[in-house]
Amino acid sequence: MVWRPTLAERRENKKKDKGAAKAPARLAVKKTYKLYLGGAFPRSESGRSYPVTSADGTHLANASLASRKDARDSVATARKAFGGWSGRTAYNRGQILYRIAEVMEGRHGQFADQLVTAQGIGRAEADRIVSAAVDRWVYYAGWTDKFAQVIGGSNPVAGPYYNHSAPEPTGVVVVFAPQDAPLLGLTSVLAPVIATGNTAVVVASEAAPLPAIELAEVLATSDVPGGVVNVLTGKVGELGPHLAAHADVNALDLAGTGDQAVEFEKAAATTLTRVLRPGPETDGGEEAWLDTDPGTSRMTPFLETKTVWHPVGV
Amino acid sequence: MSHTATAPEATTNHALRAYLYGLPGVDEVGARSRAQDLSTRSIKTTAKALAIDLAISMVDLTTLEGADTPGKVRSLCAKAALPDPADRTVPKVGAVCVYPDMVATAVEALRGTGIGVASVATAFPSGRAHLDVKLADTRRAVADGASEIDMVIDRGAFLSGDYLKVHEEIVAVKEACGQAHLKVILETGELVTYDNVRRVSHLAMRAGADFIKTSTGKVAPAATLPVTLIMLEAVRDHHAATGRRVGVKPAGGIRNTKDAIRNLVLVNETAGPEWLTPDLFRIGASSLLNDLLMQRTRLSTGTYPGPDYYTQD
Predict the structure, then answer these.
(1) For A238-260, how does the pLDDT look when each residue is reduced to its tens digit (9 = 90+)?
(2) Contact, A182 vs A208, CB < 8 A?
(3) B190 to chain A, minimum CA–CA distance in Å?
(4) pLDDT surpassing 60 at residue A21
């Protein structure tokens, strides 16, 4: 007699199968992430890429390995975008930054998943970091039309003049994103730069560039004009010297440069480029960026002060 | 190439038409793809440094605006003589190109520098004036000290088939130029076909042009690579037939170093290395010079320069 499972056994087996068999991964082909340049997503001019791994060494995807020519092109496109972006009303920039927060919130789960796999952190912590990053955009969206009142003002003078000082964006800012805080750290250094009307070239975290490119996808779909933010993935040691010495760069945020900060600061000095040195928060991981009210400290280094004398009674 | 050898002596409209229509037709697709092929040549490091210096020495630094002032012309002349005040090894430009009424100012500003003044004349840019006005325009510019005259042809006459009128005008202006070199502007953007570009090139050379120039810079498209290629072929053929070397000047739309180097490659591969001199090849441009200077700085210092470090005019 042939043995057949009883009905009860069959039910039991079915339950086991359901638990054991994982759903096949959808869209399982590994991806090569591209750069974000002038509102488009091109490959590196050099055609190179490098593997990106998770915290435990699993291959996640490839990222473009940007060359110095990509760096040069990104400065050129950021320069081109500067006039339009700095010329927008502060109110409109605020609207756009808030839109970034909205679109990012819509992709909350995706950002969190990515942090879980890439950083090896728990889901709850990842959620907290993504929420903090979204809040950071809202925070700086609020600052766009207020920093001028806080930083600028009417100066008392001993003469028949009005004297006003007003902050203006400095121009093209190269942002070296923090190495071990690929999402919240990146947001915290990038948002204040563009909030005040600068345009940015971002060198993403070398080991964890994927959140930066995900963020670029958000920027590309949230009314940020092309060229206002340009994201390069690659080696700080390769791109940094060229960007630091570039005469058409107005300021550097050296947050993610580690030991090379001094070298870059020296190179920047030859063209009087403004520099924001890395602070203590820059190697404390995402946790170090959780302060919900960072104030104006990351905006003022990238502002120039325009002072106007105006005669009274004319 | 022997087709120019059969150029007729008798100058009647009929003879000119027969001559121009006897020229071989231009293979448009071929010209485009040849220009495209040559524009992909890689010129790097020392070759690039040489090409940049050669290109700077070929620039006709130009200002042709209604808003030109003597001050602007003087500052342009200062820049022509010393393109980069931070680096005295930069060569001088080929010439300064201005409107006729600015010639005297430019000549005065360039005294002692060895740089010539080129003046557009003959009712530039349209050429729509009577011949006596055009000749007076030319004579006045030469009298003021212009060493080169950039004349425009009568495109209307050419397109309506009055080749004799175009020819006679060039001959007359050439005579009015005296010692000054004559550049003939074909305004290829208005000539419609590449065949016409070849025809006008030969017509102008036959009438005595020392240079043939693509465009006024006021009409788009201006100096495209295929058009420059066809004109370079024409001067090469003219030299083969007559032994006289005529220069070529692309003008308008050449804004960066890459474009300039592409043009130099085209010259070398089409007309030959004999044309790689400011006496036989010029580039009419205004914004190009700054890009050449920036690329030069990039090569000599290794760092990327910024436009803020160079004068605007």
Answers:
(1) 999 999 999 999 999 999 999 99
(2) yes
(3) 32
(4) no
Please judge whether B306 and A270 are an interchain contact, meaning their C-beta atoms are less than 8 angstroms apart: no
Query: Residue B309 and residue A247: Cβ atoms within 8 Å?
Result: yes
pTM: 0.88
* CATH number of the domain located at residue range(s) A32-311 in this protein: 3.40.605.10
SS (H, E, C) A212-256: HHHHHHHHHCCCCCCCCEEEECCCHHHHHHHHHHCCCCCEEECCC
Where do the domains of chain A lie?
32-311
Range of the domain at B284: 30-300
Q: Which residues of B touch A245 (CB under 8 A)?
A: 303-304
- The chain A residue lying nearest B308, using CA atoms, is A248
B22 found inside a domain: no
Residues in chain A, total? 314
Residue A118: predicted pLDDT: 85
**Which value does ipTM take for this structure?**
0.82
Catalytic residue among B60, B144, B150, B259: B150
pLDDT digits (tens, 9 = 90+) for A145-182: 999 999 999 999 998 999 999 999 999 999 999 999 99
CATH code at position B140: 3.20.20.70
CB B217 within 8 A of CB B186: no
Q: What is the pLDDT of residue A16?
A: 61
Residues 6+ apart with CB under 8 A from A290: A132, A184
Q: Residue A6 has what pLDDT?
A: 75
Which residues from B are below 8 Å from A271, CB to CB?
A: 306
Contact B306 A246 (CB under 8 A): yes
User: What's the one-letter identity of residue A74?
Assistant: S
pLDDT in tens, A216-239: 999 999 999 999 999 999 999 999
| Partner B contacted by A304 (CB < 8 A) | no
Asked if A247 has any chain B CB less than 8 Å from its own CB, the reply is yes
Instruction: Assess whether pLDDT exceeds 80 at residue A5.
Output: no
Q: Which of B92, B213, B259, B291 is catalytic?
A: B213
Query: Is position B213 annotated as part of the catalytic site?
Result: yes
Beta bridge partners of A44: none
Q: Say yes or no: B42 contacts chain A, CB-CB below 8 A.
A: no
| Residues whose CB is less than 8 angstroms from the CB of residue A284 and which lie 6 or more positions away in sequence, other chains included | A180, A181
Would an 8 Å CB–CB cutoff place A245 in contact with chain B? yes
Q: Does B156 touch chain A (CB under 8 A)?
A: no
Q: How many domains does chain B have?
A: 1
